[in-house]
Design a protein that fits this description.
Helices cover about 0% and strands about 30% of the residues. The chain is mostly beta strands and about 240 residues long. It has a twelve-stranded mixed sheet, with no helix packed on it. The chain has a ten-stranded parallel sheet with strand order 2-5-8-11-14-17-20-23-26-29, with no helix packed on it. Strands 1-4-7-10-13-16-19-22 form an eight-stranded parallel sheet, with no helix packed on it. Strand 32 and strand 33 form a beta hairpin. It is globular, with a radius of gyration of 19 Å.
Length: about 240
């Protein structure tokens, strides 16, 4: 059912679709079957919404990235968004252009996903998480409330990142310049656990199965199946 107060410019709509009042769906949007779009949602052109997906009020899908002359890096993106089957996108989330989300993934309330972000299947990107540009996140990964995932970051499969974790991608902030070969976020391999309020510094690798303790500041690589804790983080034992 399409509410008479909605603005719908596409005819590529599956069966059993609900679009609530004051939502705007632009041209060339593809909406699968059994999709629920709540009131006050904006979906810009060239977005693809998979079957059985639900989008809650106030969400903006297809935001155009803008540098406004303030960003050091060039803004580059494809004008498309792909959201998989059986996903849920919470109220007031903002999904920029050039984002791809796999199946059975939950995007929490107020989350923000910048251009170049790719998220796998069965992930949880929880409330008010910010995921910056050109970040890849594997499947079965959970990133909890109020985390910041920096640009040019890589996160593997079956990773758990607890609340208030921060990641950074630049150690030399004095220069204020963007360089592709230097501005690199942490690489977090499969099966890693990151405790609450940890801080991960630029261009480090946290290897498969490692565990970073609560409040730790990780300044260098962490080996496989290793527990690190402290400021700066130090090796405690193998796990």
């Amino acid at each position: 059912m399409i509410n008479k107060l909605a603005v719908v410019e596409t005819d590529q709509i599956g069966v059993h679709v609900s679009i609530g009042e004051f939502s705007i769906v632009r041209k060339n949007v593809k909406i699968g079957n059994n999709v629920i779009i709540h009131p006050h949602v904006i979906i810009e052109e060239n977005a693809i919404i998979g079957d059985d997906t639900e989008i809650f009020p106030g969400t903006y899908i297809g935001k155009t990235p803008k540098g406004a002359g303030a960003t050091a890096r060039p803004i580059e993106f494809k004008k498309e968004v792909k959201i998989g089957n059986n996903c849920a996108v919470g109220p007031n989330a903002v999904i920029f252009y050039d984002v791809e989300i796999g199946n059975n993934t939950l995007i929490g309330d107020g989350a923000s996903l910048r251009e170049g972000v790719i998220i796998g299947n069965k992930c949880l990107i929880s409330r008010y998480v910010t995921v910056n540009y050109n970040t890849k996140i594997g499947s079965n990964t959970k990133i909890m409330d109020l985390c910041h995932i920096t640009g040019n970051c890589e996160i593997g499969n079956n990773v758990f990142i607890s609340v208030l974790v921060s990641t950074t991608n630049d150690n030399i902030v004095k220069e204020r310049l963007y360089e592709d070969n230097r501005i690199i976020g942490p690489k977090i391999e499969d099966d890693v656990t990151i405790g609450a309020s940890a801080s991960l510094l630029p261009n480090i690798k946290i290897s498969k199965g490692a565990f970073v303790g609560v409040g730790s500041v990780v300044t260098k690589d962490v080996q496989e199946n290793t527990l690190v804790i402290g400021v700066p983080a130090r090796v405690i034992r193998k796990i």
